[in-house]
Task: inverse folding
């Protein structure tokens, strides 16, 4: 624990979460064309990816500048 009483960040955990966020964003981008064609499986995959992205952003929130994680979560929710 740090002097502030907060747990010190685990860099491995941050890197893992950042990697998961990047992978999830890649999945979102890969489904854009299918969603545009109204492909039901692509829509499902994009919705799942957006939920996963919101979860990862929630974990990364304490390590990002104030408000950035919440703004990104809200953007992902609108997908």
Result:
């Amino acid at each position: 624990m740090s002097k502030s009483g907060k747990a010190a960040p685990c860099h491995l955990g941050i890197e893992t979460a950042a990697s998961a966020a990047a992978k999830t964003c890649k999945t979102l981008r890969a489904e854009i064309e299918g969603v545009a064609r109204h492909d039901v499986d692509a829509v499902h995959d994009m919705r799942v990816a957006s939920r996963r992205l919101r979860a990862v952003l929630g974990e990364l929130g304490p390590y990002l500048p104030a408000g950035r994680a919440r703004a990104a979560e809200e953007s992902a929710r609108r997908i």
The chain has a mean pLDDT of 84. DSSP finds four helices and no strands in the chain. The longest helix spans residues 40-60.
